[in-house]
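Re: the multi-chain job from yesterday

Posting the exact lines I submitted so nobody has to dig through the queue logs.
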Amino acid sequence: MKMATNGDAAIAYSWKQINPAVVPAYPITPQTIIVERFSDYVHDGEVDTEYVTTESEHSAMTVAIAASAAGVRVATATASAGMALMWEMLGVCSGMRCPVVMAVANRTLSGPINIHCDHSDSMGARDTGWIQIYAENVQEAYDNSIIAFRIAEDMRVRLPIMSCLDGFILTHAYEDLEVLEDQQVKDFVGEHQQLNPLLDLSNPVTHGPLDLQDYFFEHKYQVIDAINGSLSVIKEVLDEFEALSGRKHFIAEPYMCDDADFVAIAIGSTAGTMKAVVDELRVDGKKVGLIKLKVFRPFPSQIIADMVKGKQGVAVLDRAISLGSTGPLFLEVNNALLSIEDSPSVCNYVYGIGGRDAPPSQLKQIYLDMMDGKSLPINYLGVRK
Amino acid sequence: MSVSLNLKDLSKQPSKLSRGHRLCAGCAESVIAKQVLMSTDKPIVVANATGCFEVSTTIFPYTAWEIPWIHTAFENAAATISGVESAYNVMKRRGQISEDIRFIAFAGDGGTYDIGFQALSGAIERGHQFMYVCLNNEAYMNTGIQRSSATSMGASTTTSPAGSKIPGKPGFPKDLTRIIAAHNIPYAAQASPHNWKDLMRKAGKGFDVDGPAFLNVCSPCPRGWRHDGSQSMQIAKMTVESCLWPLYEFENGTYRLTGESLSIAQGKKDKVPLTDLFKKEGRFKHLLADRWADKIEEAQAHVDERFQSLIKLCEMCETL
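And the result, structure tokens for all chains:
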């Protein structure tokens, strides 16, 4: 079925089809449409979800963790300052192995206060043990939202996952969306599998005990092992989703990369704009390509290394900045290239901070500068210095 | 349904919190917890805030808990139990669980009066079915006896020391039980473990009401209050008899004094002067010096005024 809708409503629609047991909700721009639309489904009886309108995001994430530990499927959503307030609980969620699915409407972090898109919020949480997947458009946001449950709840993974979409650019923009049938979605995600559920009275379990020097490291290692190992599970789930929907999803999608001498790597909606830029440059005979990264955590180092091997130049686009260092994606790509002999020259383009528009003309200049050897190690796209 | 408060019957109840936990000798927390846990015959699931009670009962790979128990963080015991109860509701609706379960959140006064207050207020407003039990030892004992907004005026703590200029904690504690009552909660009460029948009767009511319940319990701490561990129940009794910690309940909008506090209000029992209590606790001893006589007067006046205000509420409710 086709509909015209925005990214937030698409996420809410996927939840309606999945009917999670518990959805803790707290409003924050630009995520709010998700919890608003979902409350319509709850109040009209289209789902039988326990919808918990908490008094803060900290409590929303706490409810998510506790309900997940209790033994049920949980979804929630946040953005920006809301995720910052949750931050303490993000590590608790992964550490307690709660497969919570969270939609993140990417928005910058204050201050000064700003409600628009960049990836500072989720990138700031990249070390918390959550899997992170990003969307290029509304269709991918919807698809990712369904895929996320399967990845998180897989018995080989059992980790929380952030399904990220660019604030306003995707959350509020209307696009064509092809949705699956309800039953197809239900069958794809399957029944929620419990693991040592708190509410099993016959097997009383102590969840979240004090864990000191003698065991903590081992428990953290189990998380390390699970998140690293999740990449092969993600691949399986993406392939299975393609068989169901006919839509191909990649951990990292190569676009016109095979014969390209210069490639860019981008996350989120900008990857869509970049594809148009690549098309334009290809008309002029420029051998350029793009790698669109869906999965940022775990970071697919080997896939990226294989894709950029033999290229002349790589531009890494970061919609976030680790203040005092570089963009976070740039760090990861450089790390991945350590395994390559004669690795291409790599430069970093930090762009779109606080929702600053990154139009095709500016993005095109990235390729032109790279080809002319004019790119600096770190470039701040369009900023007035 | 509430359980029989006959000691013989109670002694036959299976243990929910085992011995061998690592709380200090003389700590009232495990005594209070056992009294609460014995006050219903329904299965119980517990959420615990970070604090003495959490760290002392669960050091991995050991646990003193023989019933389901969860801890996630410090400021969110009420949100944690909200999440568990929400999962229970939907599982019940979907026919995935049949037992009639009761839910408890345990937290200290720091995790209740201060950092956990927002989560508690939110959970009560949402109307989850749970009982919140504040193990109130009037300071952050787990981090080393720092003052909280539950600390009595004049008490010496590691962040409100008995200095030469400022003798202990400057202000009076927040009246949290009445703030919770202002949420129009179905049931709220103050209790003390020395009067176990009163405490268990209140816990039994809290388990049975439709909606949230709140129990604020005086929990003497030998380390923080600086008294002999063998005297904890005696200290709890004196704290109640001084009216520093009145026993009362708020049930469906009605205030009612109970136990020793009711007897004092009815003139059947004498109030213990604060100075007598202060002599028993190291945290108050500095106030007995002549130069702080005005502080003791101020504290006594405050206690008298607060108790009078409770009496007035009970008179209005015609429960006295």
